[in-house]
Write a structure and sequence with these properties.
Helix content: 55-70%
Largest sheet: 4 strands, antiparallel
Radius of gyration: 40 Å
Number of helices: 8
Structural class: alpha+beta
Shape: elongated
Distance between the termini: 17 Å
Strand order of the largest sheet: 1-4-5-6
Number of strands: 6
Length: 410
């Protein structure tokens, strides 16, 4: 699996990304809810009832008589109202909902970048472990050959028993290291399959040879400019400032009056307003305008607006903090990348030297010109050089990927 295939699998299957995408859908639905406030309010009310006869009592609650009235009654009411002016409150609420969706999209983008980075770090760790195992197995083969040689020399009374024991111990140490690496591979692979939404029985074999991880004539400043334009965290901080400012505008609308138009129709039976009660319908309708003003906003709104201004200031400070964090991350990834490139050049030279040293030392040992301690040192030097070169190769790719993540390109 290439890194590109891994990224596609993570984008399609990762459960955390699905949750983040659901948050975007929720924010989009809230825009629709906010837009419904532009529609008129309308209602219908229908009632059917039983009316009891009228009982008349004197001031001492002595019943004087009972008056028969029509016992069946019903009511039918229709009402509608339409907001005409509220200082732009509805439009500002819709704009605020749209900004919240933009913020959710920014947060989704940041989550996607972070999850992809975590998956690729696991991927590169798996790549490193699998290649460590290959290196250790190759060195175990050499250790096995050395052990055979020491046993032959011992049988010929050319060396003492302790050199054979040292050879056997070194071989077993390599076997233990291979067991530890194999266990680490299984654990890392399991975590990676969970991230990528793959069957846990799949063993991922990383393929990084075709990955283009070269930085071409780009200095650190250009990466920082790119990050401040594309990094989802920075974009989210800008959106939060816009939301805070729009919230202040929405709060200020409470200082303005509200104008609405209304209409209604009512039908009631029987007529109970006169005597005797008549089994007839009373129909009325009304059309008009209503103007209302919330007087408490005069002394309550200044406090709310002051709070909104503090929240704007907080959002601006948060953006500055995010900017500093991005600058630090760009600096670290850029410099660590170039350091890993420089280290790889040294590691390649060291590995060649360590291989030659081991070859010469082994030849000397076979000719009994040196002790086994020297060949152990040469073997350890060779192993460490090979592992260091592998680490440097891995670090180059990891720091390149981290640079892509901080610049919002992963």
């Amino acid at each position: 699996m290439t890194i590109y295939e891994l990224a596609e699998s993570v984008a399609a299957n990762n459960i955390q990304l699905k949750l983040a995408n659901t948050a975007v859908d929720i924010a989009d639905a809230r825009i629709g809810v906010a837009k419904t406030n532009r529609l008129p309010d309308a209602g219908v009310d229908v009632k059917a009832m039983y009316l009891g006869d009228i009982s008349i009592y004197d001031t001492r609650f002595k019943k004087l008589q009972t008056v028969d009235i029509p016992n069946f009654g019903n009511q039918f009411n229709v009402s509608a109202s339409q907001l005409i002016f509220a200082g732009g409150k509805i439009n500002k609420s819709i704009a605020l909902a749209e900004m919240s969706k933009t913020l959710s999209e920014n947060q989704f983008g940041d989550a996607e970048q972070s999850i992809k980075l975590n998956a690729i770090e696991l991927y590169m760790n798996l790549y490193n472990l699998q290649n460590q195992k290959i290196i250790l197995e190759q060195n175990r083969i050499l250790a096995n050959e050395r052990t055979k040689n020491t046993r032959y020399f011992y049988e010929e009374d050319m060396i003492t028993k302790n050199e054979v024991l040292r050879a056997e111990v070194l071989e077993r140490q390599l076997e233990q290291s291979i067991l530890q690496i194999e266990n680490a591979i299984l654990i890392t692979n399991k975590n990676l399959t969970l991230f990528a939404g793959l069957d846990s029985k799949v063993l991922i074999v990383p393929e990084v040879e075709q990955l283009n991880h070269q930085i071409r004539n780009q200095d650190e400043a250009s990466f920082l400019d790119l990050a401040l334009g594309k990094n989802p965290q920075f974009n989210a901080s800008e959106t939060q400032i816009t939301i805070a400012k729009k919230s202040l505008e929405l709060t200020k609308t409470d200082r303005l009056p509200t104008l609405a138009g209304f209409a209604g129709y009512n039908a009631n039976r029987p007529q109970t307003s006169g005597s005797p009660v008549l089994d007839l319908y009373t129909n009325t309708y009304q059309v008009g305008l209503s103007l209302s003003y919330n007087i408490e906003s005069i002394y309550k709104n200044p406090k709310k607006e002051a709070l909104d201004k503090i929240l704007i200031n907080q959002a601006e400070q948060r953006q500055e903090a995010v900017k500093q964090e991005i600058e630090a991350n760009v600096n670290a990834a850029y410099k660590n990348y170039h350091q890993a490139v420089a280290q790889l050049k040294v590691s390649a030279i060291n590995q060649t030297a360590a291989d030659d040293n081991y070859r010469i030392t082994e030849l000397k040992y076979k000719n009994q010109l040196i002790t086994y301690i020297e060949i152990i040192d040469a073997a350890n030097t060779k192993l460490q050089a090979e592992l260091q070169m592998l680490d440097d190769q891995t670090d180059i790719i990891l720091n390149y990927v981290r640079l892509l993540r901080v610049t919002g390109q992963l």
